[in-house]
Every structure is written in structure tokens, then in C-alpha cells.
Amino acid sequence: MPQADPPAGATNLPEPAPASPDKRNETIQSVALGIYISVPFCRTKCSYCNFASDVFSRALFERYTQRVCEDVSHAPALAAALGSGLPSPVDSIYLGGGTPTLLDPAQLQRIFAAVRVQFQVAADAEITVECAPGTLSPALIESLVACGVNRVSLGVQSFVDQEASSVGRLHSRAVVLEEIARLRVAGIHNISMDLIAGLPHQTAVSWQYSLSELAATGVPHASVYMLEVDEDSRLGRELIAGGTRYHAHFVPDEDAIADFYIAACQFFNSAGLAQYEISNFARAGSTSRHNLKYWTRQPYLGFGVDAHSMLPLPPASPSHAVAVRFATPDALEQYTAGTELPSQPISQQQALEETFFLGLRLNRGVDLQALAQEFGDEAVASYAPILRDGLSDKLLQQSASMVSLTPRGRLLSNEVFGRFLRDP
Ligand code: SF4
User: Fold this and answer.
1) Of 46, 50, 259, 286, whose CB count within 10 A is highest?
2) End-to-end alpha-carbon separation of the chain, Å?
3) Pick the CATH number of 1-18+348-424 from 3.30.70.2740, 1.10.10.920, 3.30.365.10, 3.30.930.10
């Protein structure tokens, strides 16, 4: 992307403010840590799924649990070796997958116990477990509550049974409703549900049915994803090849999927689930603390297969980087065998880029004034041409010092984010 002097008056850029490394470090260190733990095991592989998850023998679960617990106990040493430290306390834990609830209750308990031994977990920490509907037996829910879980994310995808089964989901609408009731009886009211726009057989009418059913449950949080068509899923490969396996010929076209997404934004906003991020909607006070960490560049530490981490570095870091990122392997065998984790230092420039394109995912957008205080006026001003073009293309909008995506910009978000990327 070209760099250019900021044209006067092109955007409402804030007054100059020098970057302050000490302030930056205080800000980063004063925020709490989020922990993500991935469990890559599934009962069946959904046809649209492009995650690092699969169906594995239960014999592997024990080795995996052991490995995750060991990694948790080595976290301070890993952070120190990377020149960082571990912010404290931990105020969010997210067990994702995969299907974490396939682990035995005793294995889940060992993982949470390992985290609590190693980290100071805040009393009001948000503790989420992703669950596949159809796995939430009373005994399992009891064990989640015993582990301190206070939030459940359900991969519903559709309330129309034919649509769910066409992509390999094993639950029905009735099972979802039963399990929500069971979670509430157990005291877990903070429930999120995922829907996918673009499943085979989906129509405008059936999509509206799923949206209405979700809102009618009264859950405080929802996520809506548009079907991803890529080489990493069976359905994606079939769609690219133009075939008919996996009900590929019943997948709605791109325009219809975009319309479904727009309908979801409009309907959920009118149903009290306000959109706060490209794919996420919440009732007042129920945004996902964990996911907000990614979009606001707060520190997080990941364990398990294909888990990503970002930790702050002190201002005196020899590399002059402001943070370090690292990720575990995405292959189970490689992960359990244990390999050295390649790490990537994040420069001040990269951190600013990330702050733009991650912050723009949020409906509230990014605050140019706050960015100038953190990164310096000159650095932020160099983005003026990109901001100006985004405003004139009606992909961005500005109110005082806040810049955010327009509804059209949210549909074309990848294109907008690409404009903010510069070569390292
Ligand atoms: S979508 Fe979820 S449940 Fe289905 S295969 Fe992927 S990770 Fe497993």
C-alpha cells in the first residue's frame, strides 16, 4: 500500500500526540489474559468444516489431555523464553474445537484444574465451552458446572433439520431446545448459538425460520457466519469442482447468501440482539469477552492443536517489537509429539495495521484519537489516504474520531482490511 503525506482535512485526524512506549506497556500489561484451549475431536466431520478437527479414536483423548495440561504448566517458561510475561489475572477461558464435550468429564476437569493451578483466574471470569448439540447429557452439564463453566456456545447452524443433517450435523431442532432448557436449569443462562448462511437447501423462508427460532429462545448471544467455500472442506472442494456430492447443488448462490446475512443483521437488531461485530450479535451486557480480546489486541494464550497466542513485549525488547505471536501445529500428531513453536515479533507498524483491521470488525470501529495516543500522530496520519478512499467508496463511515465499516463495508470486509496491510 502506498504511503503518503496526510492531505489536510481529508479525514478528521486527531491532534499530534507522541507515542509513549511506557504508556503502551502499562496499557497492555494492565489488561487481563484470555486463555484458549482447542479440542480437535468431533463425532463426525461436517461437510463444510475447514477447521483443524477430525474424528479420532478415543484412545488419543488421554494423550491429548496430558499434553495440554503439560503445556499449561510450562506456559510461564515459554513466555519468559519469548521475552514476555504472562498478564494476570485470567478473565476469560474458552474451550473450543472441535467438540470439547467429547472429552470425558474427568479429562475436562483435569484441564480446568491445570489452568487454575497455573493461573490466577478472576472470580468473574467468562468461562465458555463450545458444544455440539446432542452431546449435552445431564451428567456432562453437571461436570461443566463443576468446572466453573458459565457460558456455552452451541453449534446449531440451522433450526431446519434437513439443512443440519445435509452437512452432517447429528442434532435436530427439538434436541437444541431441550438442551437449552437443561443448561438453564443447571444455572447456565449465558448461551450463544451459531448459524450458517448458505447451507444446502436453505431458502429465504427457511433462513428466516432459523433466525426467528434462535431469537425466540431468548439466548443473549448469536453468531452468523457465511458459508466459506475453499479447498479445506469437502463441501467447498465439491462446490469449486461444480459437483453434486454433499448436496453441493442445493447450496444457495453468493447473492442469496449475502441477502441472508443482511436479513440476519436487520432481524437480530430488531429482536434485541444488537450487532457488535461482523458476525456477532448480543443482548445488552452479553458480548463475548473472549472474542473481544482478539479484536482489541488484548493478550491471549492458546493451548492444543492450531491454537494461537499473542503476548505483549516490554518497551526495552531487543527486537523493538511490541508483541509476539506464536501458534501450535495444526496436525494432531505433530502437536502431541511436541515441536518448537515458531514465533513472530509484531512491530509497532504491524500492531497499528492490526489495530485498524481488527478494530474495524467491531461496529463501534476504531478511535483515531486513541490510536494517535498509542502509536503517534504521524503513523496514524499515514493511513489518511486509505481512510479517505474507504469513506468515498462508502465502505467506511466516520463520526468524530470514530471510523467504522458501513453495512456494505461489512459485506466486503476482506477487501477493506486488505487496504490496511503493508509489507513488513
Ligand atoms: S463444524 Fe464443528 S463439529 Fe463439525 S467437524 Fe467442524 S469442528 Fe467438528
Assistant:
1) 46
2) 11
3) 1.10.10.920
Q: Which three cell numbers stand for residue 306?
A: 492450531
Nearest CA residue ID for atom 7, ligand 1: 98
What's the CATH number for 25-294? 3.80.30.20
**Cell representation of residue 375:** 502509536
Rounded distance, CA 127 to CA 234, Å? 32
Is any ligand 1 atom within 6 A of the Cβ of residue 45?
yes
Helix (H) or strand (E) holding 92: strand 90-97
Query: What whole-number distance in Å separates Cα of residue 238 and Cα of residue 368?
Result: 43
pLDDT by residue (tens digit) across 312-359? 998 877 778 999 999 999 999 999 988 888 899 999 999 999 999 999
**Which pLDDT score, from 0 to 100, does residue 1 have?**
31
Task: Establish whether residue 125 lines the binding site of ligand 1, counting it when its CB lies within 6 angstroms of any ligand atom.
Answer: no
Any idea where the domains of the chain sit in the sequence? 1-18+348-424, 25-294
AA identity, residue 49:
C
Cβ burial, residue 305 (10 Å; 0-12/13-18/19+):
buried
Whether residue 42 has its Cβ less than 6 Å from ligand 1? yes
| 424 vs 235, higher pLDDT | 235
Ligand 1 pocket: which of 38, 53, 56, 234 to mutate (most atoms within 8 A of CB): 53
pLDDT for the residue numbered 9: 29
Lowest mean pLDDT among 11-15, 19-23, 290-294, 297-301: 11-15
Q: Cα–Cα distances in Å, from 285 out to 21, 272, 296? A: 32, 12, 17
Q: Give CA–CA dist 224/235, Å, rounded.
A: 19
Cell numbers for 196: 450458517
- Atom number of ligand 1 nearest to Cα 169: 4
